[in-house]
Amino acid sequence: VFSSVTAVLNMSIFKDQFVLEDLIQELNKKSTALSFGPLQSNGHISVQGSFPAIKLLRDFLLLKAKSLPAKERGEESESHQRPRRRLQQHRLTTETSHFIHGAEKEKQAVVLDTDIYHYMKHFYPRTFLGNDGVVISDLTDGDVTTVYIENAGSRSNAEQVPRVKEKIENCSLKLHNVLRKERIYFEEQSGEKKQRYKQACESLKPHHPHVLVIPYDTHIDVIGHSSEIFGFIKAVSN
Fold first, then answer.
1. Lower CB count within 10 Å: N or C terminus of the chain?
2. What is 94-176's CATH topology?
3. In which residue ranges is the amino acid composition biased (Basic and acidic residues) (predicted)?
């Protein structure tokens, strides 16, 4: 059993989008169980801690990396050409970031797992409602959705931007630890069987009001609490 693990992180991928020193400070706050070494000039930094803590840090950085423009990640293909996740069940993750454009017009962002975003949008729509002083927009890139909260321009509304951001963060973090996703694959089933699956899901929705069902051409995603989605999947199978 490994009581401690040391890893070397290459943070240079983030240098064009973030101030690396600020990003390291953010990691220190989020990962109190880890010990970070000094940031090297080439963007490398050593980190030491338990394996579960290192794994959580890796997941956090992977999600943050997905929020970067494709050219920053060294990708040539468009986001819709990347294969979708094949795991039938997995934890949904969230992370946050922010940036400011000038003193009067503040713009902050919350980077969410797209599944969490869909769930929040469906069951907590008021979370994304702006007002006269705050404009909320979103951009989905595959598994990651970035929600932008922007001050419309008035200095008197400047404090509302972080408040709205905090509301979105708090909601997403509560869902982060409890939501699960199951995927029903159509595989090579006929169009008639696919339609029967979709009709079965629609008919079961009233009996599972806290389950989100998202149909696609090749599969159906079912998102919710573990016990609820397992009951839903079992009912669909029957």
1. N
2. Alpha-Beta Plaits (3.30.70)
3. 71-81
Closest CA to 46 of 55, 35, 33, 30: 35
Do the beta carbons of residue 57 and residue 8 sit within 8 Å?
Answer: no
Q: Where are the beta strands (DSSP E) in the chain?
A: 5-10, 35-36, 44-49, 94-101, 105-113, 134-141, 144-151, 179-185, 212-215, 219-225
| C-alpha–C-alpha distance, residues 172 and 179, integer Å | 10
pLDDT in tens, 9-65: 888 888 887 888 888 888 888 778 888 888 888 888 888 887 777 777 887 787 777
Q: Which long-range contacts (CB under 8 A, 24 or more apart) does 209-216 make?
A: 210/123, 212/118, 212/119, 212/122, 212/123, 214/118
Strand partners, 6: 48
For residue 41 the two structure tokens come to 């000039």
Q: Do domains 5-71 and 94-176 have the same CATH topology?
A: no
Tokens of 143: 């598994």
Local structure of residue 124 (DSSP, 8 states): -
Residues 6 or more apart whose Cβ sits within 8 Å of residue 59: 93
| CATH code for residues 5-71 | 3.30.1370
What global pTM score does this model have? Answer: 0.60
